[in-house]
Request: fold
Amino acid sequence: MGYKIDEYLRQDKLPHIWCPGCGHGTIMGNLIRGIDKAKIDPDKTVVVSGIGCSGRASGYMNFDTLHTTHGRAIAFATGIKLANPELNVIVITGDGDGTAIGGNHLIHGARRNIDLTVVLMNNHIYGMTSGQFSPMTPTGDNATTAPYGNIDQNFDLADLTKASGASFIARGTAYNTRQLIEIFAEGLLHTGFSFIEAISQCPVNYGRRNGLSSAVDMLKCQRDSSVNIRKWDSLSKEEKKGKFPTGVLYKEDKREYTEMYQEIIDSVQEEAK
Amino acid sequence: MSKKGKVKITHPERCKGCEICVMYCPTDILVVKKGQITITDIDNCVGCYNCELSCPDFVLEVVENNER
Reply:
């Protein structure tokens, strides 16, 4: 405890523009605490974000930061990591930015198992543009572009990234702040593609269209629908209905992309001598 | 948990009155009045950090010497 979070925030950019009760501030704060807990060098840490509410985070965090084009944060981050493999590269994206516009970059980043830490703030909606449904808006829920209920199915992002090749997959909620800090710290220290889905709340553009108009109600909903992975497997199929597991869901040691790339460079240079 | 630490409203100008900290406070000492967070009884603060960790706007901090 006793994290000095102000040192990691650009004070002149605060208060931030996120709406009252938005979970993104909580998630960003606990990502910073995770960085502090993991004791990674802030001067060797780069934060890259895309477009949308989540994309604002790079403007508030006092690191070397890059606010990129829509959906392309992982592509920019891949370039940064390949050019400077010693850097800790953190990607902050959202459910629209990361799974719709940037969905292809997400699966190919995972496929390469490049050493990035991808934090996907999932608020289940396109909040910044007033509430269009995203690939993560639950089936049946309302959005400005689904006034009679969304008929699309969602991705299971843990399954998607696992099938794509990610070597660290975790999920947390804005409700469980201590778990979030642990997950972020572990993901940051993992070598390989670390994917962390952080469930956020958007009371303004998602909640109030779906019977949850306050941040407090939405956080209680996160509390009631999340189950720690340690308990998840003991639940029956019926008990799992409407719930999701949280914690570190998958982890494996696997060869990392920039290390393999360096080996190629070394061997070719050796041959040229 | 720290026994010395007490909550302090370090950045009142950032508060948006969302009441998230109010939900987390185990001793109910945080109250939103006119859209701003206030501390009703600092002596009952147990320094659990719940409010600091959950505040989306970085308003509250648990500090060792809270002079208010």
